[in-house]
Amino acid sequence: MSYTPPTxxxxxxxxxxxxxxxxxPDLLRHAARYAEELAEHREREARLAEEDSTDESExxxxxxxxxxxxxxxxxxxxxxxxxxxxxxxxxGDRVRSKYKGPVNPxx
Length: 107
Hints:
Order of helices and strands: HHEEE
Strand content: 15-25%
Mean pLDDT: 85
Number of strands: 3
Number of helices: 2
């Protein structure tokens, strides 16, 4: 590990860099975790919006519950060090989820 502070990434606004410089190590780790989760959320939102824009008719999977639309995709969520499958789809401005089951580590 280097004894000099890291160089902020190019394009990161100066006011954000200044605020981060004032954070404690714990708060920096919380902010990093939040930023990663936010990036994943936005990527998922973009993917779901892109899927909404396609007008392909798809066959309904056999394991798809009746209250989940065919446009739903399967997402894996990590909760308390466990991984679970969720059906996820866009409903207007919201993203809806429905539990599917645990991820089988053998798959």
